[in-house]
Amino acid sequence: MTLATAPAPTGTVLGYARVSTGHQSLDQQVDALVTAGVDGARVYSDKLSGTSTREQRPGLASLLDYAREGDAIVVVGIDRLGRNAAEVMATIRELGHRGIVLRSLREGIDTSNAAGRMVAGVLASLAELELELGRERRSAAREARRARGQAIGRPKALDAQKAALAQRMHASGESATTIAAALGVSRATVYRVLAGGLSQ
Questions:
Q1: Is 20 a catalytic residue?
Q2: What's the chain look like in SS3?
Q3: Which of 18, 85, 98, 158 fits a disulfide with 162 by CB distance 3.0 to 4.6 angstroms?
Q4: Of the residues 20, 45, 112, 199, which is catalytic?
Q5: What pTM did the predictor assign?
Q6: What would the pLDDT profile of 141-151 be if each residue is shown by its tens digit?
């Protein structure tokens, strides 16, 4: 894939820092960004706990909304831009198309020069390949199951016979914990069956 040619930055130098959990500190990343020339007042940040959509990353959303052509965004590592390769590369592509320079301190990427754009392009291509291979593997697995006449999707934890047994055990006074242990399923599965359904 090709990334748009980003000009040398002529605008504001912005920073972005992210940690994965609320109890981690952003200080180390912010210090590194300031050392790299980012004004501390221009560092956007997020503390996440298992979320990944842009709406759940207000710092990144605000940064991308504020940044203009000619600005530069500095990160400690490109993994800070998303929770997976596809997310990271989508952000890199967006910055390239908007003429915003990306600098990653750890990887030494600077998309204001040809070498940096090449590295970013290779990473983006690898991420796209990874996604495509994943789709192909999932599709092949579904087709193989279909060809064997096997169910597609999440299997039921208890079939009708075992569900009926769970009902009988419960009627005879056995606890959900005992039933779950006997049938090798979770108590939640037992509770769902006892609540009236074989559908799990």
A1: yes
A2: CCCCCCCCCCCCEEEEEEECCCCCCCHHHHHHHHHCCCCHHHEEEEECCCCCCHHHCHHHHHHHHHCCCCCEEEECCHHHHCCCHHHHHHHHHHHHHCCCEEEECCCCEECCCHHHHHHHHHHHHHHHHHHHHHHHHHHHHHHHHHHCCCCCCCCCCCCHHHHHHHHHHHHCCCCHHHHHHHHCCCHHHHHHHHCCCCCC
A3: 158
A4: 20
A5: 0.58
A6: 888 888 887 76
